[in-house]
Amino acid sequence: MALSRLDSLYMAVVADHSKAPHHRGVLEDAKHIQLNNPTCGDVISLSVQFDGDRISDIAFAGDGCTISTASASMMTDAVIGKTSSEALELADIFSKMMQGEKDSAQKRLGDAEFLAGVSKFPQRIKCATLAWNAVKKAIEANETNG
């Protein structure tokens, strides 16, 4: 019975982020990164504003499945206000979680921790990691071009 309740909570949180995603839109004067997942058609356009080394604002647009959209919403919540190194650390924690690793650091992911179950479905991992890969590219672009 407890597993059923946990599954229901997981589904409710993912559905909420997918139906009403946080930080949806496009930011002006931002680093813009676009990535796609050719296997399923997910596309994300990420806008990231930096204040020095800190992510001061972030937004995403694009088309994606429920997992991709929910993950993008959760990622934006997790990294806004963080330094680049803190955001990269969260992306690394998320990546390891998608590989099936369990770690107490996953609690730092906020709602994104609810996506841990995606690791059991290899075909969906790219959907979940698309937004996290985009933020890594935005940070790399900011560090390279300032």
UniProtKB/TrEMBL annotation:
<dbReference type="Pfam" id="PF01592">
    <property type="entry name" value="NifU_N"/>
</dbReference>
<protein>
    <submittedName>
        <fullName>Iron-sulfur cluster assembly scaffold protein</fullName>
    </submittedName>
</protein>
<dbReference type="GO" id="GO:0005506">
    <property type="term" value="F:iron ion binding"/>
</dbReference>
<comment type="similarity">
    <text>Belongs to the NifU family.</text>
</comment>
<feature type="domain" description="NIF system FeS cluster assembly NifU N-terminal">
    <location>
        <begin position="10"/>
        <end position="127"/>
    </location>
</feature>
<dbReference type="GO" id="GO:0051536">
    <property type="term" value="F:iron-sulfur cluster binding"/>
</dbReference>
<dbReference type="InterPro" id="IPR002871">
    <property type="entry name" value="NIF_FeS_clus_asmbl_NifU_N"/>
</dbReference>
<dbReference type="GO" id="GO:0016226">
    <property type="term" value="P:iron-sulfur cluster assembly"/>
</dbReference>
